[in-house]
Amino acid sequence: MAxxxxxxxxxxxxxxxxxxxxxxxxxxxxxxxxxxEAGSDDSFNRxxxxxxxxxxxxxxxxxxxxxxxxxxxxxxxxxxxxLPPITLDAEEAAALGLAAKVWQQARLAGxxxxxxxxxxxxxxxxxxxxxxxxxxxxxxxxxxxxxxxPLMLACRDRRPVVFDYRKANAAxxxxxxxxxxxxxxxxxxWYLAGWDRDRGAERVFRLSRITGKxxxxxxxxxxxxxxxxxxxxxxxxxxxxITDRSALIRLRSGAGYPLxxxxxxxxxxGDGWDELEIPYxxxxxxLLVEFGPDVVVVEPAELxxxxxxxxxxxxxx
Length: 317
What we know:
By secondary structure, the protein is α+β, with helices and mostly antiparallel strands. The protein is built from eleven helices and twelve strands. Helix 1 (2-18) packs across helix 4 (41-57) and helix 5 (90-102) packs antiparallel against helix 6. It is elongated. The model has no long low-confidence stretch (mean pLDDT 81).
């Protein structure tokens, strides 16, 4: 079956590359033996659409052209499917190999390997091994969330998505309609930055809090996609790494070492309590809740209210 499909894809690619004018579905069906053997028009149409998508996924640029009679035809122009000469020195090839090895344990391993194979076919030196050893450095980015791949594809193709998302202070997930911009890995967790249509503002979502499947939706984006650097700063800010103010908390002695590591100053209060000044950024309320009765927020009042709301939500289950 695999050989038959590979032969069918090869024949389709040769037909599309070898023609000087767009070929209709009817003409392609008459030119390729496997299509002639299709039992019905519906069977052929399904087979052809899958094959066309597979060729595009492999990198073949297939154009769809409509003639004066309204009939749709297909062709793959040679100038659109020809890579310019690629020259890579050993260091550049090593950098590409190192980047590809990042994904070898993730679901993008096949895409990374395929990209390097295309580069070798386009002129990557034969004596350079992109997967060869490059010292003790072994990069690895964990990708465990099922939402990663559909969101990665949605970011690439600029497709709106819908998914159920559970906020840290909510008992039940809510539905979000999002125009995805970019995915960022921050301190071992993946985040999606995008435009939340329901709230009319940019938002960042932690992938581990997405429940169920990510569903793609038709249509164009309604908001402008910002520069990638801006998106990365947004992710960092929503992850709590960018701060412009401080919070004052009381922490039980001998507890909360992650908070002590963040502290700008620490003062002993006695009776088993310390007072800490810590950077106040997005997500601090969720972090403080994790320490339960060992933490008391002194100021600002808004942070104290957020922590109380989260604790009440947890108490309600």
